[in-house]
Amino acid sequence: MTQELRGMRVGILATDGVERVELDQPRGAMHGAGAKTEILSLHDGEIQARQSDLDAAGTFPVDRLVADVSIDDYHALLLPGGTMNPDQLRMDRDAVQFVKDFMASEKPVASICHGPWTLAEADAVRGRRLTSWPSIRTDLRNAGAEVIADQEVVVDGQLVTSRGPADLPAFCAAVVERFARAYDPMPS
User: By CB atoms within 10 Å of each CB, which of 9, 10, 158, 171 scores lowest?
Assistant: First the structure.
């Protein structure tokens, strides 16, 4: 097990409808590299996960409400997909502001599948290169992004994006590498 993210705190912004594998696998890769993660959501308790958007896939306990956190609490941010998850996040003022502030901070952000919808709502994709699930690419272009369709991972500065679950091995590796490069331990 490597420890290049030892001491790093990563916020995972998600709500009901999150694609389970898109939260589980990156979180596992970050934990394996020594990071600590917290699930931030719109409501307390648990969030409902999905598999392929259609099938129930268990729950995740919520650590903190996005309305109650600051970008200063985290070194990096993960935005998993699933169709319903980012669709709800982009309708929540606190979630959108948190993502907007995080992107403005230049701290690393990783997003997969439909996750970039929240980035678009936060006006954080203009002038950026990224990829996503095919069905939201027009939305991202309309928000000013340069969308790359034929790469499993696109890294643009602080931002790491991938197309979907099939790209998770490459996405997880890129997330750990990019987060490690940007990590500057904060005093405890």
Answer: 9
